[in-house]
Amino acid sequence: MPIKAILTDIEGTTSAVSFVFDVLFPYAARHLPDFVRQHAERPDVAVQLGAVRLDSAEPAADVERVIEILLGWLAEDRKATPLKALQGMVWQQGYAAGQLKGHVYPDAVQALQHWHAQGYALYVYSSGSIQAQKLIFGCSEAGDLSPLFSGYFDTTAGPKREARSYRHISAAIGCPASQILFLSDVVEELDAARQAGMLTCGLVRGGGELSGHPNVGNFAEIDPAIL
Ligand SMILES: CSCCC(=O)C(=O)COP(=O)(O)O
Ligand SMILES: [Mg+2]
């Protein structure tokens, strides 16, 4: 059956790992403590602080302890939903202030534009929050790419290495998994997507091999019509 929708990962796939690790994460580490202190009572922030207390099994943690937990999770790159939500809020301030511009590889920009023009429905699935996803594409070095996308999924759809998350996304998109192509640089994510019935393609931008899946070095090598 022909592919109708393309679902893409961000870090290492559309965008450089170094942008996430050397720009976004340090920005969050620098600004998250004061952001949390200043906005701890804001309802959307307070919900996430409550989730940190729950996830860490520290129900009595005060704001300073919650910040400590968040910075620990950030340092270990834990894909914890409350951390990701708060990072998105902090980055929003950075993008608004012109201190951040989203990195998207030129080959990804070109292919996404081409696929959109050809009628493929484009979706994003990243551990970064939906707010963070909209920012990286909406405030990218290549301009506002958000009109290209039909929807966004984050860890609230489930962990990226579990097949049930891809089944959930397929149902939410309203498209059989067999008509969705998933792009990622992580083999466990590709395996989970395939287990759910999706077609897969691995991005190996720095070389190496994503075993058991078609591999490409960049988006220009992907032709959804022949996969
Ligand atoms: C949305 S940009 C920030 C990416 C991020 O926080 C992250 O953890 C990367 O996860 P991905 O699933 O895109 O590899
Ligand atoms: Mg990735």
UniProtKB/TrEMBL annotation:
InterPro entries with a match to the protein in the record: Enolase-ppase_E1, HAD-like_sf, HAD-SF_hydro_IA, HAD_sf
Cofactor(s) recorded in Swiss-Prot or TrEMBL: Mg(2+)
The record's free-text note on cofactor binding: Binds 1 Mg(2+) ion per subunit.
EC number: 3.1.3.77
Chemical reaction(s) catalysed: 5-methylsulfanyl-2,3-dioxopentyl phosphate + H2O = 1,2-dihydroxy-5-(methylsulfanyl)pent-1-en-3-one + phosphate
Pathway membership, UniProt: Amino-acid biosynthesis; L-methionine biosynthesis via salvage pathway; L-methionine from S-methyl-5-thio-alpha-D-ribose 1-phosphate: step 4/6; Amino-acid biosynthesis; L-methionine biosynthesis via salvage pathway; L-methionine from S-methyl-5-thio-alpha-D-ribose 1-phosphate: step 3/6
Swiss-Prot/TrEMBL GO biological process terms: L-methionine salvage from methylthioadenosine
Keywords noted in UniProt: Amino-acid biosynthesis, Hydrolase, Magnesium, Metal-binding, Methionine biosynthesis
Domain of life, per lineage: Bacteria
Pfam families recorded: Hydrolase
Gene3D superfamilies in the cross-refs: 1.10.720.60, HAD superfamily/HAD-like
One example GO MF annotation: magnesium ion binding
Uppermost EC category: hydrolase
Primary role: Bifunctional enzyme that catalyzes the enolization of 2,3-diketo-5-methylthiopentyl-1-phosphate (DK-MTP-1-P) into the intermediate 2-hydroxy-3-keto-5-methylthiopentenyl-1-phosphate (HK-MTPenyl-1-P), which is then dephosphorylated to form the acireductone 1,2-dihydroxy-3-keto-5-methylthiopentene (DHK-MTPene).
Similarity section: Belongs to the HAD-like hydrolase superfamily. MasA/MtnC family.
Assembly notes: Monomer.
Name recorded for this polypeptide: Enolase-phosphatase E1
Species in which this protein is naturally found: Pseudomonas batumici
Gene name tied to this protein: mtnC
